[in-house]
């Protein structure tokens, strides 16, 4: 198996806010390990709506961390 093809990662829903119109605003954070062993993180700001097939993301804003945190 190619090491770069499968990398560990995780995404967690950290906050949600249900609106009177049925939409849900959700904040999720994800972390991944790159092939070189470094880590990367991302934050998703989603608007989720319920449709006949279940819940679907209707809008997503991706906030990638571009500068590493200082120690």
- The proportion of residues in beta strands is over 45%
Look at the helices and sheets and give the structural class: mainly beta
Low-confidence stretches: none
Strands, total number = 4
- What percentage of residues falls in helices of 4 or more residues? under 10%
* Series of H and E elements: EEEE
Mean pLDDT: 80
Query: What is the total domain count?
Result: 1
For the terminal residues, how far apart are their CA atoms? 34 Å
Q: Counting H and I runs of at least 4 residues, what is the number of helices?
A: 0
Radius of gyration, rounded? Answer: 15 Å
Organism: Nonomuraea antimicrobica
Region (Disordered): 1-24
Biased composition (Basic and acidic residues): 12-24
InterPro entries: NTF2-like_dom_sf (IPR032710)
Q: Can you walk me through this structure?
A:
By secondary structure, the chain is mainly β. It has one domain. The protein contains no helices and 4 strands. The protein has strands at 9-18, 24-33, 39-51, 54-64. A 4-stranded antiparallel β-sheet has the order 1-2-3-4, with no helix packed on it. The radius of gyration is 15 Å and the shape is elongated. The N and C termini lie far apart (34 Å). The model has no long low-confidence stretch (mean pLDDT 80). Residues 1-24 are annotated as: Disordered. It comes from Nonomuraea antimicrobica. Residues 12-24 have a biased composition (Basic and acidic residues). This is SnoaL-like domain-containing protein. InterPro entries: NTF2-like_dom_sf.
């Amino acid at each position: 198996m190619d090491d770069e093809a499968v990398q560990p990662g995780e995404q967690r829903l950290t906050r949600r806010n249900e609106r009177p119109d049925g939409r849900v605003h959700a904040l999720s954070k994800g972390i991944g390990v790159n092939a070189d062993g470094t880590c990367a993180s991302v934050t998703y700001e989603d608007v989720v709506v319920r449709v006949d097939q279940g819940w679907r993301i209707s809008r997503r804003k991706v906030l990638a961390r571009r500068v590493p945190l200082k120690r």
